[in-house]
Amino acid sequence: MTSPRIEVDLRKIRHNTQALVGRLKERGINVTGVTKAVCGHPAIAQAMLDGGCIGLAEARLSNVQRLRKGGIACPITLIRTPMLSQVDEIVQLCEASYNTEIVVIAGLAAAAIRENTVHGIVLMVEMGDAREGILPENLGDVAQQVARMPGVALKGVGANFACLSGMAPTAAQMVVLSSLSNEMETLCGPFNQTVSGGNSANLPWALGKRSRGCINDLRLGEAILLGVDPITGEHIDGMHTDAFVLVAEVIETDARPAPPAIVLVGPALARFQHVSTSEINTRLIFAIGQQDTDIQGLSMPPGSTLIGATSDHLVISMNRSPLRVGAEMRFQMNYKALMHAMAAPDIQTELLHDQPSKWSQKIQSKTDHLTLV
Predict the structure, then answer these.
(1) Rounded mean pLDDT of the chain?
(2) pLDDT top residue among 194 and 106
(3) Which of 99, 182, 204, 310 is deepest in the core (most CB within 10 A)?
(4) How many angstroms separate the CA atoms of 8 and 23, rounded?
(5) What is the set of domains in the chain, with CATH numbers?
(6) Residues 111/91, Cβ–Cβ less than 8 Å
(7) Average pLDDT over residues 26-42
(8) Partner residues linked to 281 by β-bridges
(9) Which of 13, 47, 43 is CA-nearest to residue 244?
(10) d(CA 97, CA 83)
(11) Exposed/middle/buried for 120, CB within 10 Å: 0-12, 13-18, 19+?
(12) DSSP line for 318-357
């Protein structure tokens, strides 16, 4: 087998999707699968759709192109604020997009008119993450401008949480988002097909006992792919945490006194701890490095400690390691490591437990149902 590689267990991704879709459906919330961490890999996207996602969300047009070329025909929403230079391509590839700038929306409207179509607009409101969004006090005015604009259709409102700020949303914020949705409909008439309440970080709220209000959609990536809570790094009950495994090959090994090593601790695998030892350990060097993935986001197998990494080499030590040159070691990844590895040109992807497509006509066909994220 080729290495380095990522082994992707599609059966586990389908299971994770089905588990979350089932739990959220009981609360009136749909799931939109976010594929940006896997660079729009069509087979992984299909596993999400097979698991019950109502559609897909992407941040980059190159990934959307990959999805379309791979045969994915379901509605796809662009979740990063569109670039004005890409409005024509966005309208051609995506049914809807998240927006914060009226000049960009006007550009999308003009592009849609040229294409003889209507592009869905979801307005992103700033709810405290401090990344992107229209200020709440300006939302009504922007919504009314969009509602009057030919070529586009006002389809919903959304918010983002825990991306830039790292703070999980509160129940009070979700009440405010529902109120803003109601105010927009009062001003512009009924239009909110979807009110998107955030991403995987919002699962504790969504699965809790409080009222969901108007929120009827979550856009989920990390929770489906890795089975963990993005804020705490804790395992979500009933979910697989090993759907993705990074495999690297040993290119050098010898026994020597181990220098002070570095091991990763904490749920986010992002903090360092120095470990001193005078034991004679086996030093292993792997053909993978910082250029391939976020080394800090790898979880070391039991009995091993991270010494360090360069652009092309990963060095660890093990006590009495049986591994020899040409052997392989398997690593689990956090979300950041997964994103980097999936985008690395020298890492191959191997699909496990693939199955023939079982797309339903309702999901796979382009219809007037708008997938919002």
Answers:
(1) 87
(2) 106
(3) 99
(4) 24
(5) 9-229+356-364 (3.20.20.10), 244-352 (2.40.30)
(6) yes
(7) 96
(8) 256
(9) 13
(10) 11
(11) buried
(12) ETT----TT-EEEEEE-HHHHHHHHH-TT-EEEEES----
